[in-house]
Amino acid sequence: MKQQIVNFCLYLLSFILLWEWLRPLEYSTDSIYTVIFVIFIGISLFFTFMQLKWYISYPVKLCYIFFFIHQLFYNGSVFEIGWILEFIHDLRYNLNLITERYFGGMTPPFRTFLFFVLLWLLVYLLNYWIIQRKRILLFLILTITYVAVLDTFSPYDATYAIIRLAVVGFFLLGLLYFERMIFSEKIPFRSILYWKWIVPLLAMIVVSAAIGWLAPKAAPQWPDPLPYFSKYKQDGEGEHLSNSVVKKIGYGTNDEQLGGPFIPNDAPAFRAYVERQHYWRVETKDVYTGKGWITSDRQFSIANGFIGPYLNLTSSQVQTEQLVSTVEIEREYPYQHIIYPLGLQEISSDADQYRIDHVTENIFPMFNESGERLSSYSLKYSYPLFEIEKLQAVHSNEGAPKELVERYTQLPASLPERVKNLAVEITKDKNNFYDKAKAVEQYFLKEPFVYETNDVAVPELDEDYVDQFLFETKKGYCDNFSTSMVVLLRSVGIPARWVKGYTPGQFVETTSEGLEVYEVTSNNAHSWVEVYFSGIGWVPFEPTIGFSNPQEFAHQSNENQQDSSAAEQEQSQPLEEESQEQIDTDDAKQPKKFPFSLSPVVIVSIGFILFIAACVLILFKTRNKWMTSWMTSFYKWNHDEKDFLKAYRLLLKSLERCGYKRENGQTLREYAKQIDQMFGTNSMSQLTYIYERVLYRGDDPSKEWEQSKELWEDLIKKTTS
Amino acid sequence: MQGETMHPKLEKIVENVEKVIVGKSELVILSLSALLAGGHVLLEDVPGVGKTMMVKALAKSVGADFKRIQFTPDLLPSDVTGVSIYNPKTIEFEYRPGPIMANIILADEINRSSPKTQSALLEGMEEGSVTIDGVTMPLEKPFFVMATQNPVEYEGTYPLPEAQLDRFLLKLKMGYPSVTEEVEVLTRAEKGQPLDELTSVITKDELTALQEEIKQVYVDDTIKHYIVDIVNKTRNHDSVYLGVSPRGSVALMKASQAYAFIHARDYVIPDDVQYLSVHVLPHRIILTSEARYEGRTAEQIIEDILAEIPVPVVRSL
User: Fold this and answer.
1) For chain B, what is the mean pLDDT?
2) CA–centroid distance for A110 within its chain
3) Cβ distance of A665 and B223 shorter than 8 Å
4) What contacts A6, CB < 8 A, 6 or more positions away?
5) pLDDT value at position B83?
6) Residue A587: band (very low, low, confident or very high) from pLDDT cuts 50, 70, 90
7) Which of A101, A132, B81, B105 has the highest count of CB atoms within 10 angstroms of its CB?
8) Fold type of domain B215-308
9) How far apart are CA A469 and CA A481, in angstroms?
């Protein structure tokens, strides 16, 4: 009975240990009802403690699992057959997914079910470790590693978890060590012994934990990696800026406050099937506030698929190329907006209509029924090919709509004078808009400007974002460069605006139809500049270091149809861009100590893999036990006449695994005697005498085997204990 | 093998002999094995440790005639085999049997006599008959020779040739008794000679029957292979100049059968083979001179081989 109390303590402590695995789930995954799982492990451990027969405990546990799966995911009564059928259907669907190794697509009920099963197994393992092996160190190390990793790389705060783990873990270790000693020395149970052991143990743990808690601690020696990983709390929702930290993650819609680090996020955004590479526009902004960008006005139009007339980006004089492309939006992509290239003419998709904002050039699909969203659409567009000579011919805003010029030469009154002076300084030798724009664009290529995503300043209240970048920090990412270029151009009276969208992305493959497939992720979110040329339209420029000018622009006018240099340039640019993107991603990574990004899924799966590896290791280490016990039952119920020979051979092997190796020249009798001395029995000798009769006398093995099964079983059990 | 049950009759013989010889049961069992297997024993030991006493006790226990021949340099073959003497009354040569015409013979200090005399005995041992004046006389069965050799004196000895050593099934050493054993010897000596009080346990005929029974002891093929493996190894061993002959393999098997029989088994186990190898094989091999200079003995070589050759413990299924 007293032993029961000790066992109960062991189970209670292991319950607390296991609980620590579940606590962070609320923080790092989308599981909310962790208490259900906690109760489940509690029940499972309790059943194990009570040593309930499986035919009682299994049904109860299964009922528990199904009840809560129903509660969480299905409607209606538990006793209806409908949800069960649905669940079975779900099960089959998920099993198919597993065979196809498409683990990402598993449905929540199935994942919950799997998690329950995992917990069940864990409880079983824990029971084995604690009661059979009386060892817990490995599990404790795993637990601490798990908590430490989550503490480091996720918002989960494990300060108290570590203390709990230390206290519970060391107490459990101490108790189990004592149990082992008691067991190996065959000391009868006396509670006074336990008190003698437990009291100093507890005192020591409490004192050392208290010292650890109160003692002064050194500051972290490594830079806190948290900024790179805390992102997933707001994954893909860059516009919800937290109160204190200004930062940019992927594509955002709110640009009122620019600056702060650019957090890499490789979550896929969309997949594009294109005939040629180009930038993808989403929207433009017209008003610079000194801190960021806002939109002055909104003017909506509703259109069916023919968008071209509403946008009117370039004049009809510009030479164009007719292209088509298809965009497949990822399911997780948080925005509804249409992503389109310059020169968009027509959209075809499931949407009934489109809403176009004339000021921002943002296009949204509209549905008659609410709740729908686009998963893919195809685009037709007249991609402009600008000729430099024609651009160079523009010297003023003559002929441009007045309100347009007014709107896109807006500057905040607070803009420091030195910015304007700089703009004049940069463009003073140039006489046309194109050369001026080029001069500004190339100004950033010069030495002091550095591409930097991490250490990017946020302007103070009295500072101007552009001024700070141009004169003080001189390092930043696309927003810094593009905003600065717009402001500089506006300072010299050239209409310019700030464009947001995506770079072409990563090339994946070429389809059989000859379309190139690009994978665009949140990391490809970008901003650049468009300059208005009277009579031509909006022409894109790319001031950011490490990014190539959108290629449609770099086309030289040439009267000869054979435009070799342009062709060359066109060909070389995609490559150049690829490599430059490589460079800038490397750039972006270098200052960070952690060149990979860990999502919580990855952390949990690493933990899971570690756990599986540990299980496999344990299975291998204890193969003696489970293999022989399996063999025991196998031979026990088999009546093959060769069985005795096989069984004896197996016994020899498992003895050898236990470290009692038979020497080459050692006869079975001598060996048996040695083994019997070791075990303090004479079963081995008895069995060996019978075996000798079979082997050396040619007796019938099956008859002898019937008699000696018990001896054999006894010995096999000894080898496994 | 200590602790193993023994054939009840044979156990009695051993007990009987032990009444006279203190603490030499192992040696007695081995001698009995040789007797039962129809072989002979070469005892190599110093005088005075009770060789004669043991053989006499053994002979008495099995109800056999016992003769002792003291080998001296001037011993003639006819002194061993017997001689034909002219009887004037019958006008015929009459055969006077020599000491060899007995069941159990102790040939003391066999290496002291000339090879010619030795070979007279050895012929009897191998053939089971002696030839006198061209007449072959069969020897009575059972016939068992226990020859002794004195390892101390080498002056004036004629060491047995290798070919003849081969005739002995076992070569044994008696050794001195331990302190307690020797005290026991003294106690018994006070009371007078216990040898005279010994009675036979079995008759000569029973002994012959037992000898026949031993041939029925089962030797599994695995054991035969094991024996051959051991013997073969002596032929390929680096330290061995001349290995064990096939006669040695047969001897080892027969001795093992007898030994198993004594232990109330009708089948031979590797333990029997191993135990007997060190008594059956060493005198059948000749070491290379290198090995001799290294101070290695034939017994050590055999033990090495036994440790090396894998014991058959599984049957190929």
Assistant:
1) 86
2) 20
3) no
4) A175, A179, A194
5) 83
6) very low
7) B105
8) Helicase, Ruva Protein; domain 3 (1.10.8)
9) 8
Decide: B80 and B137 in contact? Cβ < 8 Å.
no
Residue A535 Rama label (left phi>0; alpha psi -120 to 50; beta): left
CA B128 – CA B131 distance, rounded (Å) = 10
Q: What is the pLDDT of residues B268-279, one digit of tens each?
A: 999 999 999 999
Are B269 and A696 inside 8 Å of each other by CB?
Answer: yes
Chain A positions touching B315 (Cβ under 8 A) are: 645, 695
**What is the chain B residue with the closest CA to A696?**
B220
Tell me the one-letter amino acid at B173: K
pLDDT digits (tens, 9 = 90+) for A211-251: 888 877 776 666 555 555 444 444 444 433 333 345 566 67
Cα within 13 Å of Cα(B128), Cβ side = 6
A430: tokens are: 């140039």
CB B234 within 8 A of CB B296: no
Q: How far apart are CA A166 and CA A208, in angstroms?
A: 10
Question: Which one, of A681, A715, A721, A675, lies nearest residue A186 by Cα?
Answer: A721
Q: Kindly report the backbone phi and psi dihedral angles of residue A353, in degrees, each rounded to the nearest multiple of 5, phi listed first.
A: -145, 170
- pLDDT score of B250: 93
CATH number of the B8-75+101-206 domain: 3.40.50.300
Task: Verify whether the Cβ–Cβ distance A696 to B270 is below 8 Å.
Answer: yes
d(CA A347, CA A328): 13
- Whole-angstrom CA distances from A131 to A121, A335, A456, B128 are 15, 54, 56, 74
What b-and-e string marks burial along A184-202, b requiring 16 or more CB atoms within 10 Å of the CB? eeeeeeeeeebeebbeebe
- How do the domains of chain A map onto residue ranges? 2-224, 267-589, 622-720
For A266-322, give the DSSP string: --EEEEEEESS---EEEEEE-EE-SSSEE-S---EEEESSB-HHHH--B-TTSEEEE
Q: Which residue has the tokens 């290798």?
A: B162
pLDDT band with cut points at 50, 70 and 90 for residue A27? low
d(CA B192, CA A552): 132
CB proximity A104 to B under 8 Å:
no
Q: What is the pLDDT of residues A322-373, one digit of tens each?
A: 888 888 888 778 787 888 888 888 888 888 788 888 888 888 888 776 667 7
Binding-face residues of B in 1-20 toward A, CB within 8 A = 1
Domain boundaries, chain B: 8-75+101-206, 215-308
Which of A649, A663, A670 faces B314 most closely, judged by CB atoms?
A649
pLDDT band at B261 (very low <50, low <70, confident <90, very high): very high
Whether the ω angle into residue B142 lies within 30 degrees of 0, i.e. cis, is yes
Of residues A85, A44, A82, A42, the one with CA closest to residue A62: A44
Instruction: Please provide the distance, in angstroms rounded to a whole number, between the alpha carbons at the two ends of chain A.
Output: 24
Do B311 and B226 touch, CB atoms closer than 8 A?
Answer: yes
Number of other residues whose CB lies within 10 A of the CB of residue A488: 30
Do residues A478 and A467 lie in contact, with contact meaning Cβ atoms separated by under 8 Å? no
Mutate to test the interface with B, among A644, A651, A667 (most CBs of B within 10 A): A667
Name the residue among B109, B187, B197 with its Cα closest to residue B146.
Answer: B109
Chain position carrying tokens 């190796």: A661
ipTM over 0.90: no
Q: What is the pLDDT of residue B218?
A: 92
